[in-house]
Amino acid sequence: MSADNTENKKPWSGRFLRPTDAAVEAFTSSITFDSRLYPYDIAGSIAHCRTLAKAGVITDVEAGALIEGLKKVCADIESNHMAFEDRLEDIHMHIEDRLFMHVGDLAKKLHTGRSRNDQVAVDVRLYLKEETTGIISGLARLREALVDLAERKIDTVMPGYTHLQRAQPILFSHHIMAYYEMFTRDCARFSDALSRMDVMPLGSAALAGTTYPIDRHYTAGLLGFSQISENSIDAVSDRDFMMETMSAAGICMIHLSRFSEELVLWSSSEFSFISLDDAFCTGSSIMPQKKNPDIPELVRGKTGRVIGDLTALFMLMKSLPLAYNRDMQEDKPLVFDSMDTLFACIDIYSRLVPNIRVNNKTTKLAAQSGYLNATDLADWLATAGMPFRQAHECAGRAVAYAIKQNKELHELSLDELRAFSPLIKDDIFDALSLDTVISRRRSYGGTARQNVIAAISRAKEALEAVNGSEICKEKTGE
Ligand code: ARG
């Protein structure tokens, strides 16, 4: 026997003379993807029962029975005892239908003063608050892994690039800490989005609010929201909290994809700067010698998906008249895919980063060839009194000469160098040495070792504060 409360009737059947066509049921159903909202839907319904009881709309005994019933529905879903059917359209109607099986006609009181419009709005906010919190924690783990790598590899020197051409020598750690900064800003973007999605929409009902004397602040408190929505129309129509979070996800994926591209390049035979642990690579089914950087490649590829999700959501919301429109049901596969993909990428990178092996010798060799100290020759001349533009020209001529001689600048003799400017003295060789070139870049935020060490220690302090914060405590269940 069916568990449904109205002999297969729709909640809206009063106005309809004919049953819904099966093809329409299949087409309009969202249960295949919105079933994962069940914990939030049940939490929202429990809070709604308490709110109705507090307002005297239902009795405390009724509220108690409904809540017990809702908990049973939750157990049914978690033990796979509840079938999902297109007939019941979405997770909200499935839960109400199942509630009827547990509490009978009383279930028909649950939807008093509520609409699926404010119900789905509260569900997705609860879902996204939790997801965003998880992403912030995941990013904290990734940032920790990056700082740890930077600290371990503080002695590794490599070429820094512009236009993918060798530019100036840098510390490998300085390069890695650049990503730390990006992921720190990503965290800030997610925290900021979190503060704006922390708004409770229940009580907005279909669009205009409800006639029942409910205490919306009370509902918000029960569900852990810090604010309630100001405008019932906005509350059921707005998905900007979703667009904002998915934009942050897109930006974060772009950071991950830039890192991915570098890992792919650096692990190629052409660069040979790093090798990735076997456990984090895969092979080829035909070429026995291959060890491929599939994780970075997939992260790079998934970036397009996450940005595609965001673009699709933008297109979905563009020009939608107020208030709720069924188009908005399509937001869920997008937000789920975006958050799932981002989380998976952050998680796999927090595991991969500790397994990056750096080939110090190759990176140092690369930093020593290609005239990466040419700026330092120009700077030396400028410090000796030559205007910088002239010094640049002079160093450029020295480079052209050295290329012809098949030597690096620091391999030229003092006489050869003095041919370009009589100002040059033999302390030029110290100025051109790899150590000096790096250690003299002491401007705040520069690559000098002492700066990078200080940046690492600031990052460690910041991460300690994050780990002690409420967000991370909540996640680890402390
Ligand atoms: N499944 C719907 C969604 O995800 C729930 C809200 C339906 N509201 C309605 N008036 N048909 O948007």
Biggest β-sheet: strands ordered side by side in the sheet:
1-2
Q: Calculate the terminal CA-CA distance, rounded to whole Å.
A: 45 Å
| Count of helix runs | 20
CATH superfamily caption of the largest domain: Fumarase/aspartase (Central domain)
- Radius of gyration over C-alpha positions, nearest whole angstrom: 31 Å
Compressed to H and E, one letter per element, the order equals: HHHHHHEEHEHEHHEHHEHHHHHHHH
Helix/strand layout:
Blueprint (H helix, E strand, L loop, with lengths): L21 H7 L2 H4 L3 H17 L5 H19 L12 H13 L12 H37 L4 E6 L2 E7 H26 L1 E2 L15 H8 L3 E2 L3 H6 L2 H27 L7 E3 L17 H24 L13 H22 L3 E3 L1 H9 L5 H10 L4 H18 L8 H5 L9 H5 L1 H6 L9 H19 L2 H7 L2
Parallel strand pairs: 3-4
Antiparallel strand pairs: 1-2, 5-6
Helix pairs in contact: 3-4, 3-6, 3-8, 4-5, 6-7, 6-12, 6-19, 7-10, 7-19, 10-11, 10-12, 11-12, 14-15
The protein binds arginine.
Offer a concise description of the structure.
This protein has three domains: 13-112, Orthogonal Bundle (Fumarase C, Chain B, domain 1); 117-205 and 226-359, Fumarase C, Chain A, domain 2; 366-455, Orthogonal Bundle (Ribonucleotide Reductase Protein R1, domain 1). The protein is 60% helix and 5% strand.
Structure explained in plain terms:
- The protein has 478 residues and is mostly helical.
- It has three domains: 13-112, Fumarase C, Chain B, domain 1 (Orthogonal Bundle); 117-205 and 226-359, Fumarase C, Chain A, domain 2; 366-455, Orthogonal Bundle (Ribonucleotide Reductase Protein R1, domain 1), CATH 1.10.40.30.
- The chain is 60% helix and 5% strand.
- It contains 20 helices and six strands.
- The protein has helices at residues 22-28, 31-34, 38-54, 60-78, 91-103, 116-152, 172-197, 216-223, 232-237, 240-266, 294-317, 331-352, 360-368, 374-383, 388-405, 414-418, 428-432, 434-439, 449-467, 470-476; strands at residues 157-162, 165-171, 199-200, 227-228, 274-276, 356-358.
- Strands 1-2 form a two-stranded antiparallel sheet. A two-stranded parallel sheet has the order 3-4. It has a two-stranded antiparallel sheet with strand order 5-6.
- A hairpin with a 2-residue loop joins strand 1 (157-162) and strand 2 (165-171).
- Helix 7 (172-197) packs parallel to helix 19 (449-467).
- The longest helix has 37 residues, at 116-152.
- Bound molecules: arginine.
- Arginine binds next to helix 6.
